[in-house]
């Protein structure tokens, strides 16, 4: 066997593998032995038919496909190993047979490879630097959120329904005097003021008493997702069965102890520290995103489709995990938005292409600037992780997967790269950059957010629908922004 490697179009290489007649004959014999039990010929026991008889009966090329697959599986990985310094495969190859005869077999593999990226200026640029402060109001809002989560529910019988109460209702919706699909339910739990239903519905439930039935008149918005209901007036007959209110705990030291602090002052300090860490992470992520976005304006790479598709699939997986966390299946959501998996995946194409380009830029800069992670730096990070789980560094390192060490090494290099880029560019507060930017939207470098796909939904916005919309919106955020949100929600 011998092979040649030649560059092909759009960041691919063509690997032409030539096999000798002896290798081809041996591969055919092997394919025959592996597959002969599948064939039967009158006069022979199944699995005992000679090879030449099977070829006469079914055709000379009976075992060619299996023989070619065996040869490819045996030799292709070895070729990639030999050529690893010259190119890196980033997807499955497209196979073709260039020549097939008793004298010679040539199998061609067109393989997508990681492209080189051409980077223009990456120092001396004017780039926005983001920083966020934590206000007292944000601290109190976070504490109030915890207070809401720890609230106890209590059934109410001596007053009418109020905003923020949870009510249990039956409702029947009608347009033009006729019930419509998705407009009725029994025993539905609704938090008033949550915005789950169309405007005007929840506001009119406020003031109802247990056992009361009331007709509520509303009008569907002009931009409502169901075409047959857009702008139409409707009447919902609502019966209220139960009112439940939240009883919030007092903000005292007893509350602080429930959430892991001795006093409210200590708890407030703890909340502030967490929010400040999140704000610092958000600022760092957005600054790094601004740096790489600016450098990418003058960068070029012929990115193979395989890399973009892989990133799209990664985004789809993140979306699926996000939905699973909320108790929603991806198939259910896709049915809700009326798209197939492949159709919905295209929503991530632009962001995927941008993400791949940014990754290529980072990798090239690390290589060109000869940035390394020393053993001392790696050991320091390992020690930090060990301390976080109460172990000694030596003991902890023995339990680590090699990929964890690779991740630590890569993280150190990326951190060093962005430290270098911040030090060698004109980092200007984002507020100043915004003030200097032209007022016209046409001059803005920022692209508008992608519109969510058209949705099909019932007359009400169910809690599941709201959650799926939120998950979709979060999934289409830039990587740095998504990371920031993850930190805030910890």
**What fraction of residues sit in β-strands?**
15-25%
The percent range for helix content is 40-55%
Instruction: Characterize the biggest β-sheet.
Output: 5 strands, antiparallel
Assembly type of the chains comes to single chain
Question: How many distinct helices?
Answer: 17
Low-confidence stretches: 440-459, 461-490
Count of beta strands? 13
Series of H and E elements = EEHHHEEEEHEEEHEEHHEHHHHHHHEHHH
Number of domains: 3
Query: What overall geometry do the principal axes of the alpha carbons give?
Result: extended
Distance from N terminus to C terminus (CA atoms, Å) equals 56 Å
Q: Report the mean per-residue pLDDT as an integer.
A: 88
Summarize the structure.
With 490 residues, the chain is an alpha+beta fold. The protein has 17 helices and 13 strands. 46% of the residues lie in helices and 19% in strands.
Verbal overview:
The chain is α+β, with helices and mostly antiparallel strands and 490 residues long. The protein has three domains: 2-113, 2-Layer Sandwich (Alpha-Beta Plaits); 152-247, Chitinase A, domain 3; 261-488, no CATH class. It has 17 helices and 13 strands. A hairpin with a 2-residue loop joins strand 8 and strand 9 (178-191). Helix 7 packs antiparallel against helix 17 and helix 12 crosses helix 14. The longest helix is centred in the middle third of the chain and has 33 residues, at 264-296. The model is unreliable at 440-459 and 461-490 (pLDDT under 50).
């Amino acid at each position: 066997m011998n092979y040649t490697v030649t560059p092909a179009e759009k960041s691919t290489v063509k690997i032409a593998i030539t096999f000798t007649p002896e290798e081809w004959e041996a591969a055919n014999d092997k394919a025959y032995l592996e597959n002969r039990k599948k064939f039967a010929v009158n006069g022979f026991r199944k699995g005992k038919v000679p090879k030449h008889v099977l070829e006469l009966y079914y055709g000379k090329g009976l075992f060619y496909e299996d023989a070619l697959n065996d040869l490819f599986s045996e030799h292709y990985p070895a070729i990639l190993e030999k050529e690893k310094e010259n190119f890196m495969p980033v997807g499955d190859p497209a196979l073709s047979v260039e020549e097939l005869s008793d004298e010679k077999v040539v199998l061609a593999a067109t393989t997508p490879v990681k492209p080189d990226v051409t980077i223009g200026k990456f120092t001396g640029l004017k780039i926005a630097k983001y920083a966020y402060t934590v206000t007292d109001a944000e601290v109190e809002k976070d504490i109030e959120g915890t207070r809401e989560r720890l609230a106890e529910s209590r059934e109410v019988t001596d007053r009418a329904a109020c905003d923020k109460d949870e009510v249990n209702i039956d409702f029947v919706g009608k347009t033009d005097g006729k019930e419509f699909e998705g407009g009725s339910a029994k025993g539905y739990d609704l938090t008033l003021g949550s915005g789950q239903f169309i405007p005007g519905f929840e506001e009119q439930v406020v003031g109802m008493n247990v056992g009361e039935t009331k007709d509520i008149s509303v009008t569907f918005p002009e931009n409502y997702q169901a075409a047959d209901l857009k702008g139409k007036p409707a009447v919902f007959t609502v019966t209220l069965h139960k009112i439940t209110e939240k009883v919030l705990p007092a903000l005292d030291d007893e509350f602080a102890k429930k959430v892991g602090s001795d006093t409210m002052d200590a708890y407030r300090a703890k909340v502030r520290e967490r929010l400040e860490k999140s704000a610092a992470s958000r600022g760092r992520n957005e600054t790094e995103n601004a740096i790489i976005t600016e450098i990418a304006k003058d960068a070029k790479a012929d990115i193979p489709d395989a890399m973009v598709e892989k990133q799209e699939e990664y985004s789809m997986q993140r979306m699926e995990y996000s939905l699973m966390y909320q108790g929603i299946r991806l198939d259910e959501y896709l049915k809700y938005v009326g798209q197939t998996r492949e159709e919905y995946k295209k929503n991530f194409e632009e962001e995927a292409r941008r993400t791949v380009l940014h990754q290529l830029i980072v990798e090239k800069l690390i290589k060109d600037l000869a940035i390394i992670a020393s053993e001392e730096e790696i050991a320091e990070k390992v020690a930090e992780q060990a301390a976080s789980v109460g172990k000694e560094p030596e003991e902890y390192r023995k339990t680590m997967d090699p990929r964890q060490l690779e991740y630590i090494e890569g993280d150190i290099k990326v951190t060093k790269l962005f430290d270098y880029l911040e030090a060698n560019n004109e980092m200007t507060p984002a507020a100043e950059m915004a003030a200097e930017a032209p007022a016209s939207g046409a001059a803005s470098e920022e692209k508008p957010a992608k519109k969510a796909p058209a949705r099909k939904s019932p007359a009400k916005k169910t809690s599941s629908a709201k959650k799926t919309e939120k998950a979709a919106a979060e999934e289409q955020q830039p990587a740095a922004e998504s990371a920031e949100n993850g930190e805030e929600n910890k």
